[in-house]
Every structure is written in C-alpha cells, then in structure tokens.
Design a protein that fits this description.
Radius of gyration: 27 Å
Strand order of the largest sheet: 1-2
Largest sheet: 2 strands, antiparallel
Shape: globular
Oligomer: single chain
Helix content: 40-55%
Number of helices: 21
Structural class: mainly alpha
Length: 516
C-alpha cells in the first residue's frame, strides 16, 4: 500500500515501522519486531522455557507421581499378589484406588513393567493427550504461527496449575479430556455418526464425564448418546467379568464412601461441596443444601448449553458441561480443573483476551494454598474458593452461540456507498405479492458477501440507491443453509453489485498427606 513502509521477517509477516500496531497502538509493533525472525523467536522460546523450568522446579509443590504410584501399587497387588484392587494403600497413608474397576482393567499393562517405566509411559501418555486437546481446541489457529505457536502454548500450559499437577501426580484427567473432546471434534466436523465412543470410555474410567452423555441427549444426538451409553455399560460389564469381587465392592460400598478420596474441606477441593465443607468445618456439610445447589447449577447448565446447541456451537457446549461437572462433583481437586481448558479456547475464539489472560494468571498462582491452614473468615471464604468462583463465573458468563465476528455482512464501505443505478434495470417497486430480493436473506449472498460454515446470514441486504441499515434479525444457526424459494424477475432483479472482500487429587497430596 502506498504511504506505508515496513519490512518482512523470515515468516513473511509484515512488521509496521514506527513501533505501532494497527490503529496506532504502541507496543504491538515493537513486540512484532522483536519476534520478526525465526532466530529471535527461538531465543524468546528458549528464554521462556528456562523461566518455566525454574518456576516448575522451585515454586509449585512437586507431587512425585503420587497418584500414579497408587495406580501402580493397586494393579501390582491385584495381579502379582492376589490382593483386591481396593484393598491396597500407599504405605504410610490411607489412600488407595478410587476409580471404577474398568480403570484398573485399563491400567493392567503397568503390571508388566517396573515403576520407573510406568512413570515414563504415564508422562508420554499425558503429553500425547495434551497435544490432542490443544490440536482439537486451537490447532488451526496455532498452525498459522508454525512451530512458534505450539512452543509458546506448551510453555504457557506448563505454568497452569491444573496441567502441571496432572503431570506431577501422574493423573488421568488429560486422557479423559482428550477422549471427550474427540467426540466434540466429530460432532462439530459433521462426523456425528461416529461420536460417542470417547465419552463412553471416559465415563467408564471415571464417573464425572457421564454428564457429557446428558449433553448428547440435550443436543438430540440420540445415536451418539446411545453409543456412549452402550460403550460405558460394555466396559463396566467387562470389568465385572474380569474382577467380579472388586466390582461388587465398588458399586455397593466404595462409590458412596467419599472419605476414601480425601477430606471434603481440604483446600484443594474446589467444588460446591468443598465450599460448603470449609464453611462448616470441622462439621459435615448439609447434603440437602449441596443437592439443591447442584440442581441449580445443572439448570443453569441446561439453559446455557441449549443456547450453544441452538447455534451448533459444540465447543462452548462441551466447555459448559466440563464446568458444570467440576461444580457438582462431590470432590474436584485442583488437577481436575483441566476441564476448564475448553472454556479458555472459547474465550480466545471470541477475542476475550483480557479475560482469558486474567483467569490464566490466577490459575497459575496457586493462590488457594494461602488458606491451606485456615480458611475461616471472609477472606478465607473468598480466597480459598477462588477456583470455584472462576468455574462458576465461566458457567454464567462464558460467551456462547454465534459470535458477531463470524457473521458475514457487507463491509462498512459497501454499507455506506450507494449502488450505482443501472440503465438496463430501472428501479421499480416490487409487487405486493412478490418479495423484494434486496430485502431477502439471500440478497447478502447475491451481493457477494462471504458466507462461511459458521456464518449467520444478515437479515437485510443493501437496496440499490440507498445505504443499508443494520440487520433486523439473525439468520439460521451455524452449519445450515438458506435456500431461496423466489426468483426475481427482470423488472425486480437488482443490478449486479461488485463483490466486496472481507477485511483425583491435584493439590491434595503432599509428602505427608493431611489426616483424613
């Protein structure tokens, strides 16, 4: 463009001179100049990786793969020593295996290797799951920035407390999230006939993801809901066949005993029941009050998720379901909050960058641990439940439905510039029984407005000879097409306009776990 000077780095991204970004904002251009070449980007990533490594090694409490040791010990006792899955306890603690029996069946390969190899395999599995989650949620956006985008994302996720605790504990939450999001990807990409297997397996490994089956029912994806239910039941039946005594004990006893998992009032429990437990500690919280609050949360979830499903916004629907599951679960340790990752993807897609950055900073801070010893008082009520407030706030305020940025419309210039009159087709008022093509939803298409798969067609096009007003109504939901049923005649067809281009214990364990 004339009057604009700049330079291009090796990535081909134009960097404006003068240190100003679009709109004259200072600082954006300077940062772009610093990261304008691959060499500078590599130095930036290496420096950030050093900072992340120092922070991870010194600031957070390292969990020494405690949960993976529980899994390994339970499977080893079951296979090699004839013990029951639920009888094993980590030496010196009261903690043992708490998942459904199918989870132990899925972990049987650990009985073939030593503990060191099991830890290494667990790390690789979590890395693969995290890569899958990132690829599903923001993969297309990151590919625009090549290796730099993925490296920067990896460094940022390594600082996030739920993610780093999942790795440090050797937990399975990222694997469950990847399984569930695989179905979200199938549904959003038009492959819904194959969906349901991931959710079914996740629900058989741990009960919390079963809420996603309710999401499928709410979205009237009957086939996917049936597949998910069938897979979950088949996996549970397989576990009952392999370990009948353990299955009987779990479904009749262990499932209802929350003391096996940990203290409800422990500060790492960032669920609604954790909030209530800390309020009345050392007394037990009211189960009736908790059930009432959980029912209210589920009602809000159903209402907001229905709005997302109306626009085929599956990312937001899955994000809301993960939030609701964290709130209504009796125990939601900090590492369970990896279910908030889809919510961050929604915020990024909707350009709520400041909100996403603020919430990310809080979730990196481990702030709730300031009230580890004493969560009493107003400051304890607010501070020790910080992650719960974030989850509840996202459930209430997460953007859902069709984003305005995705709605195709005539450009600002096209709206403001009157169309040139056509001598071959003089303006003639449409007959009363014939719809005006300029006011039909299809006028935006004939005028050259871009339409995408997630687009909402504007309700009013530009009339020849006058500027178009604002849209009167939104068009159909995402993924649907509007088919015109009327063909304008030669007397009413507007002149062709020129197309316009669109510009389960995350922080609940320590070397010396708290008393039950």
């Amino acid at each position: 463009m004339s009057g604009t000077s700049g330079k291009r780095g090796t990535t081909g991204v134009k960097v404006p001179s003068g240190g100003q970004g679009p709109g004259g904002r200072q600082g954006a251009g300077g940062l772009a100049a610093v990261l304008s070449t691959d060499r500078r980007r590599l130095c930036f990533v290496l420096g950030l990786a050093v900072v992340v490594g120092v922070f991870t090694a010194t600031v957070p409490l390292l969990r020494d793969w405690f949960d993976l040791r529980v899994y390994y010990g339970a499977v080893d006792s079951w296979v090699h020593h004839g013990g029951s899955i639920y009888d094993y306890r980590v030496p010196g603690t009261t903690y043992g295996f708490t998942y459904p029996p199918f989870a132990a069946v899925g972990m049987l390969p650990m009985a073939l290797v030593g503990l060191g190899a099991a830890i290494a395999l667990g790390l690789l599995l979590n890395l693969a799951a995290l890569a899958s989650v990132v690829g599903i949620l923001v993969g297309p956006e990151l590919r625009r920035y090549g290796w730099f985008g993925f490296a920067l994302t990896a460094c940022l996720l390594a600082l996030l407390e739920p993610v780093r605790d999942t790795f440090s504990f050797g937990q399975v939450n990222l694997v469950l999230l990847a399984l569930v999001l695989s179905d979200a990807w199938l549904l959003s990409s038009g492959r819904g006939r194959r969906a349901g297997v991931g959710i079914g397996l996740a629900a058989a490994i741990k009960l919390t993801p079963a809420l996603f089956i309710a999401l499928l029912l709410l979205g009237r994806r009957w086939r996917a809901a049936g597949v998910a239910t069938a897979v979950a039941l088949a996996a549970t039946a397989l576990a009952a066949w392999v370990a009948p005594d353990a299955s009987r004990f779990y479904w009749t006893d262990a499932l209802w005993d929350t003391s096996r998992i940990g203290r409800l009032a422990y500060v790492s429990n960032q669920s609604l029941q954790g909030v209530l437990a800390r309020l009345v500690a050392p007394e037990e919280p009211s189960r009736a009050l908790w059930a009432t609050l959980a029912l209210l949360v589920l009602c809000v979830w159903a209402w907001r998720t229905s709005r997302a499903l109306a626009d085929e916004d599956w990312t937001a629907a899955f994000a809301l379901t993960g939030l609701a599951a964290c709130l209504v679960s009796p125990i939601t340790w900090v590492h369970h909050l990896v279910w908030l990752l889809p919510s961050f993807a929604v915020l990024l897609h909707r350009r709520r960058l400041r909100v996403a950055a603020a919430l990310y900073a809080v979730l990196c801070s481990s702030v709730v641990w300031l009230w580890f010893d004493d969560a009493s008082g107003l400051d304890g009520f607010l501070g020790s439940n910080t992650y719960t407030w974030i989850t509840l706030g996202l459930l209430l305020r997460l953007p859902v439905g069709q984003p305005r940025l995705a709605r195709p419309a005539l450009t600002r210039r096209a709206r403001a510039t009157p169309a040139a009159p056509s001598a071959a087709a003089p303006a003639i008022s449409a007959a009363s029984d014939q719809p005006s093509p300029a006011s039909s939803p299809d006028a935006a298409d004939t005028a050259g407005a871009p339409v995408t798969g997630r687009a909402v067609v504007a309700g009013r096009g530009a009339r020849p000879g006058r500027a178009a007003g604002p849209p009167e109504a939104e068009g159909p939901a995402a993924g649907t097409e509007r088919v015109s049923t009327s063909v304008p005649t030669g007397s009413t067809r507007p002149s062709a306009s020129k197309p316009q281009s669109s510009s389960e214990r995350a922080s609940s364990y320590t070397v010396n776990p708290p008393p039950a």
